[in-house]
Amino acid sequence: MIVLGIESSCDETSVSILNNGEILSNIVSSQTVHKNFGGVVPELSSRAHLQLILPLVKQSIEEAQVKLSDLNLICATAGPGLIGALLVGFTFAKGLAYSLKKDFVPVNHIEGHMFSGFLMEEKPLFPYLCLAVSGGNTLLLLVNSDTEIIKLGSTIDDAAGEAFDKVSKLIGLGYPGGPKIQEAAAYGNAEKIKFPIAKTKNELDFSFSGLKTAVLRYIQKEYSDVAGIPLHDLYDIAASFQKAAGMSLLINTEKALKQHKVNSISVVGGVAANLFLRKGISDLAIKYKIKCVIPSLEFCGDNAAMIAYRGYKLFLSGKRYNFDYCAYPSSHYSSRK
């Protein structure tokens, strides 16, 4: 089965073609203009998607060496994400599927990340524990099958990726925060500052708002402003923040491992590119003697291959969707069976 997938939920325009789950092409175009504004500007994102979507579809088809008539299924991210950005890829995909008389599958962006481990040569084994961490979502999930997903925990305030972005901006490193913090942390002492790790009512939930505030208060107490932070101190702040944020994720993940018997563990999403977190998840897998599958860096960020794969598996499971299905900007992810 040849599947075309489209992803346009934020600031990456991506098109991918899979053949029975194997990648034939996967093109990702990242928007760099947002660095000038310290974050994603929705209107600029939507405009860029409009300019890129058709050329990328043509390029993906050429690289996959297939024709439009060869497509059996068309999938696109339905949400969550920036609604203007989502609508570009989503409506294009629906229109293409309708014109070609092909089946269309709307895909939840978070579920796309959840199943991105299956794009690797070594794939997760059900049931597996999945830590999904990105700029918009932080979730701990028990994935029992292609269609049974149980939410164990989520953030009660900010997503982990959002915390990285805001702290990076706060200490003057800029956007995007994840790679900026990691680069600076490599030169710092993570033991220098004891930033707090939040405790929540549900022990598997996360909270990062207090951690962000703690970084702000530390800077206000120790320095007159960001410009007054010595470089070596900035490195220590980055390293200490990264450790606190990473340990928050790892502590809850280990709690879940103690409560649920799983065969694999996976960390997915943009924050899964963080080396501290990747090593921590790998160490947990060794400790609990389970398989560890972490997507390669190209599949941690937003990409259409994960959307095409998720849509493909939903279609094989018997799911069918009408063309009146609508995109959605936000989603409080809940368990599904």
List the helices and strands and how they pair.
Layout: E1 2-7, E2 12-19, E3 22-30, H1 42-64, E4 73-79, H2 83-100, E5 103-108, H3 109-114, E6 128-133, E7 138-143, E8 149-154, H4 160-170, H5 177-185, H6 209-222, H7 231-259, E9 264-268, H8 275-287, E10 291-292, H9 297-300, H10 304-316
Parallel strand pairs: 1-4, 4-5, 6-9, 9-10
Antiparallel strand pairs: 1-2, 2-3, 6-7, 7-8
Helix pairs in contact: 1-2, 4-5, 4-6, 4-7, 5-7, 7-8
Descriptive report:
- By secondary structure, the chain is an alpha/beta fold.
- The protein is built from ten helices and ten strands.
- The chain is 42% helix and 18% strand.
- Helix 4 crosses helix 5, helix 4 packs antiparallel against helix 7 and helix 5 packs across helix 7.
- The longest helix is centred in the C-terminal third of the chain and has 29 residues.
List keywords for this structure.
10 strands, 10 helices, 337 residues, globular, 42% helix, 5-stranded mixed beta sheet, alpha/beta
| Major sheet attributes | 5 strands, mixed
Provide the low-confidence segments as ranges: none
Structural class: alpha/beta
Shape: globular
Q: Which range does the strand content fall in?
A: 15-25%
Which H/E pattern describes the elements?
EEEHEHEHEEEHHHHEHEHH
The helix fraction, in percent, is 40-55%
In short:
The chain is of the alpha/beta class and 337 residues long. Helices cover 42% and strands 18% of the residues. The chain is built from 10 helices and 10 strands.
